[in-house]
Amino acid sequence: MNKLNLKGMTRQELVERLAGIGKERYRADQVIRWLHLQRIRDIDEMNNLSKLCRKHLQDFSYIGQIELVKEELSQDGTRKFLFKLEDEHTIETVLIAEKSRLTLCISTQVGCRMGCRFCLTGGSGFERQLSTAEIVDQVIQVAEIVAPESQGRGTISNIVMMGMGEPLDNFTEVVKALEILMYDDGLQFSNRRLTLSTCGLAPEIIELGKLTHVSLAISLNAADDILRSELMPVNRRYNLDALLDACRTYPATNQRRITFEYILFAGLNDSLEDAGRLVELVGNLPVKINLIPFNEHPELSFKRPDHQRIVDFVDFLQRHKVMVMTRRSKGADISAACGQLRAAEATV
């Protein structure tokens, strides 16, 4: 029998397993606290559970752990971690320091099959889905690393599913991971502190909105179907009309808007005409635009627009009453772009 990784089990799954030996529901809560707050590595460390209960847990489960194999630290405080999984595959996780908060960017797949032209992860191909446990364990392991260093600055405050992979292409495992991350007696992230970023799988966006109310970010990058299909093959399956229809179903308000991520590529989507199309596209949807000047990499031909081009684009959006912010690149001096560190290690 293949044993289950306890870190990937929901509260209800634990309750049902423990009920098999007549254990009370609250025993599942104790297990969750041991895993996520105490961050133990051995079931025998759960000393408020009976030996019989621990033996039962050991019969069907174990406490798995992803292994840190490399860390890079940027001058701006960004930290990139390369983790090895049980089958020797590797994934990336990035910790971004911003004033009073720490945002953790986690992966949901080994590789990606969406094929976005500007993404290094997609260029490396798709290997497999991450399990719920592997998604959750990125948070646990980085929390373990950060805790001794916090010195009163706190630990991870926000989580974004913007790392390797398309989260909604791993729908079941991702939704389970979101549930686990929000347990009050576990890692204690509210839905307002969790953000899922998608390239635009429209049916899954609709289903996600029925199951959870985490913050939603859409990787948009173009305001017309021709250019977006060229940049992002997913647009040939779900065009902009389908994507916007899905966004209209998602539970968002003026206080909690959907984010449209728009990477600015020099000479491709950074003109005032492009800005005008973007204004027309968003209309009166409750969205905000996150402009991201492209982070150049020698393996990709795209270029970053010059500073004035970016300023003009922002000014145009603001004059047309579109909520916009410009993301400052983080970790430019390390392999911080998605897929860089994993690709670099693979060539060593």
Task: Report on this structure.
The chain is an alpha/beta fold and 348 residues long. The chain folds into 2 domains: 4-62, DNA polymerase, domain 1; 67-346, TIM Barrel, CATH 3.20.20. The chain contains 12 helices and 14 strands. The protein has helices spanning 11-19, 26-36, 51-60, 120-123, 132-146, 171-181, 202-211, 225-231, 240-249, 272-282, 307-319, 340-346; strands at residues 4-5, 61-62, 67-73, 79-84, 90-98, 101-105, 109-111, 126-129, 158-161, 194-198, 215-219, 258-264, 287-293, 324-326. The strands form 3 sheets. Strands 3-4-5-6-9-10-11-12-13-14 form a 10-stranded mixed β-sheet, with helices on one face. α1 (11-19) crosses α2, α5 (132-146) packs parallel to α6 and α10 (272-282) runs parallel beside α11. The chain is elongated. The two termini are 37 Å apart.
Shape: elongated
Which regions have little confidence, pLDDT < 50, spanning 5+ residues? Answer: none
Number of strands: 14
Order of helices and strands: EHHHEEEEEEHEHEHEHEHHEHEHEH
Total count of helical runs of at least 4 residues: 12
Give the total of domains. 2
What is the strand and helix layout of this fold?
Elements: E1 4-5, H1 11-19, H2 26-36, H3 51-60, E2 61-62, E3 67-73, E4 79-84, E5 90-98, E6 101-105, E7 109-111, H4 120-123, E8 126-129, H5 132-146, E9 158-161, H6 171-181, E10 194-198, H7 202-211, E11 215-219, H8 225-231, H9 240-249, E12 258-264, H10 272-282, E13 287-293, H11 307-319, E14 324-326, H12 340-346
Parallel strand pairs: 1-2, 6-9, 9-10, 10-11, 11-12, 12-13, 13-14
Antiparallel strand pairs: 3-4, 4-5, 5-6, 7-8
